[in-house]
Amino acid sequence: MARTKTLKTCTFCAKEVYRIAGHGLCANCYYREKRNGTPDYVKVRSPCSVGGCEALSVAHGYCETHYRRWKRHGVVENERFDRWGHVSKHPLAQSYYWARKTDGAAFLKPWEDFWQFIADIGERPSSRHRLRKIDQGAPLAPGNFKWAPPKFDIPCRNAPERAEYARAHRSAHPSTYKDRYLRKSFGVSLAWYSTQLDVQGGGCAICAEPETANNPKTGLPRDLAVDHCHTGGHVRALLCSKCNTGLGSFNDDPALLQAAIDYLTLHTPDVAPPD
Q1: Arithmetic mean of pLDDT, 73-98
Q2: Out of 3.40.50.720, 3.40.50.1110, 3.40.1800.10, 1.10.443.10, which CATH number does the structure's domain 188-266 have?
Q3: Which pLDDT belongs to residue 2?
Q4: Burial class (CB in 10 A: 0-12, 13-18, 19+), 66
């Protein structure tokens, strides 16, 4: 049997409705009473009771923003400032990823929590400041960081300006780029290179002579080349350009090199011919 709807009368506005929302009031009067404390229309609203807020109150002495925050979270103050949004959207997320990739577990030990990292380092002074270590030999950690301004006042708004900045940075930090090249190409560090050069007495591991070929860009002698096995990939020693090219010409084949030695021995007379 179908249920018959009956009209009910609001106790305040005497309007006939099918549903009484509460307190004997229709929906309009009920929510008006809930917001303003009275079902009557209130034309003048008092300011929000939260200190420093100049908006007008809509319910319980709160403005719309604080009232909805109070309804949703039970507090009127914004408690999401330190932990807002997703980590990847945070302005300092890339600094965190860079430090974590550079130092690994040593960095994650004190700063495994991203939000603790944000609380410790504070705000970036400007968009051009970068997070740097005070002691380069230690991992980035509380007490071993600083916000450093750019060393070169070169704008990077387009490709030519970025290239100019890169050239200036490379000229000012040759050891950094040398270390980066060695790690990427051969899996060794600049510290290993320096140690190996001392072991070889500053000369080639084959001829014991220093490098004689010049760098066409600087006009200075080149650094000794890092010789490595093309089959196994392991690093062997440091060679001058002549010896390194010679090994490459013989395909690093000991049999070919021995055949070359036998050839020179056979065709080299014991006594030089007379003039």
Answers
A1: 73
A2: 3.40.1800.10
A3: 59
A4: buried
Helix (H, G, I), strand (E, B) or coil at 237: strand
Average pLDDT over residues 108-128: 84
Q: How far is CA 252 from CA 95, 156, 245, in A?
A: 44, 45, 10
Asked if 57 and 46 count as a contact pair (C-beta separation under 8 A), the reply is yes
Q: How does pLDDT run across 52-66, given as a tens digit for each residue?
A: 888 888 888 888 888
Mean pLDDT of the chain: 83
Tokens of 38: 């009275």
Region class of 23: left (phi > 0), else alpha (psi between -120 and 50), else beta = left
pLDDT of residue 81: 47
- How far, in Å, CA of 9 to CA of 261, rounded? 116
The residue that leads in pLDDT, 13 or 275, is 13
Beta-carbon contacts of residue 201 (< 8 Å; ≥ 6 apart): 208
Alpha helices in 62-214 (DSSP H): 64-73, 93-103, 105-111, 114-121, 159-172, 174-186, 190-199
Region(s) of the chain under CATH 3.40.1800.10? 188-266
Residues of 120-150 as b/e, b for ≥16 C-beta within 10 angstroms? ebeeeeeeeeebebeeeeebbbeeebeeeee
pLDDT exceeds 70 at position 111: yes
